[in-house]
Design goal:
By secondary structure, the protein is an alpha/beta fold. It is 18% helix and 32% strand. The strands form 3 sheets. The protein has a 5-stranded mixed sheet with strand order 3-4-5-7-6, covered by helices on one side. A two-stranded parallel ribbon has the order 1-2. Helix 3 (76-84) links the parallel strand 4 and strand 5 (89-91). It holds the Pfam family Metallophos_2. This is Phosphoesterase. GO terms for molecular function: hydrolase activity; metal ion binding.
Length: 146
């Protein structure tokens, strides 16, 4: 994860759960970088932090690890919860399978996994006047001009 942060140089980092100590370590390594996190099914503390709603750059995000929404089966429950929260984007993990697509105006984004894997990925979100743009980025294939 630290490599992705170093390469992307983001304004914010969003950690979508599992291994909460990784988020804490990242926050310690980059103390000036705002980090927003939720807990996942492998994080056994503070169950109140499993879902968050945040607004960044005028975009409302529904953040969750996803295990409570059955994301390994389908994305219907996640989509309904995000829409009910008034979100324009639902960010989730749990499946460790990267995804960035819009369904009926709602972004569904899973960054994949930045952990130890053959092809670690992350999601890079750009927020500007035209709205939200997202791409899944392989950390192995990062270029200076993404």
């Amino acid at each position: 994860m630290a490599e992705a942060v170093r390469l992307a140089q983001p304004d914010y980092v969003i950690h979508l759960g599992d291994i909460a100590p990784d988020a804490a370590a990242l926050s310690k390594k980059f103390p000036l970088l705002p980090l927003i996190s939720v807990n996942g099914n492998c994080d056994f503390t503070d169950y109140s932090r499993e879902t968050r709603i945040v607004e960044l750059g005028g975009i409302r995000f529904f953040l969750t690890h996803g295990h409570r929404y059955g994301v390994k089966q389908d994305l219907l429950r996640l989509s309904l919860a995000a829409r009910e929260a008034g979100a324009q984007a639902a960010l989730f993990g749990h499946t460790h399978q990267a995804l960035a697509e819009q369904r009926d105006g709602l972004w569904l984004i899973n960054p994949g996994t930045c952990g130890p894997t053959v092809r670690p990925t992350c999601a890079v979100l750009n927020l500007d006047r035209s709205g939200l743009r997202c791409r899944i980025q392989s950390i192995c294939d990062w270029s200076e001009e993404p």
